Amino acid sequence: GAELWERLHAAAALPWLDGAAVRRLAEEHASGRRNHGPILWSLVMLHAWAAHYSANALRGACDAALYAIPEVTAAPRGSGPLAVGRGSGALPENMPGTAMTAGAATPHVPHATEAR
Questions:
Q1: CA 56, chain centre distance (Å)
Q2: Does residue 84 sit in the same domain as residue 45?
Q3: Would residue 115 count as lying in a domain?
Q4: Pair 44, 86 in one domain
């Protein structure tokens, strides 16, 4: 109904779309000249996605994720190419469901130059 058409017109305003082309598709579909149903529905869903994952929402999620990034340093020779530190900004001492629990060895990730 009307709400769907409102969302479609809102999708036409998205900066990455050609608004005139979206409106033309909608007009052709509404007049019955062409069936653009699948593409119009995709545009409505794109608008819903863009509204949900706006730049502000993503910025907040990214900021939160940055605080959880562990400190990564060079590992002692023979223990693998990287070690995850336990200092400021590192993973918690006990992180259930991972190999990074207290006392666990740093997992070895083979380097491309190592023999398999």
A1: 13
A2: no
A3: no
A4: no
- Decide which of 112 and 19 is more confident: 19
Claim to verify: residue 9 and residue 41 sit in the same structural domain: yes
- Residue pLDDT, tens place only, 13-67: 888 788 899 889 988 998 999 999 998 889 888 888 888 777 666 566 556 655 5
Model pLDDT, residue 15 = 81
Q: Is 76 domain-assigned? A: yes
pLDDT of residue 32: 93
SS3 of the chain: the string is: CHHHHHHHHHHHCCCCCCHHHHHHHHHHHHHCCCCCHHHHHHHHHHHHHHHHCCHHHHHHHHHHHHHCCCCEEECCCCCCCEEECCCCCCCCCCCCCCCCCCCCCCCCCCCCCCCC
- Residue ranges making up the domain that contains 48: 2-54
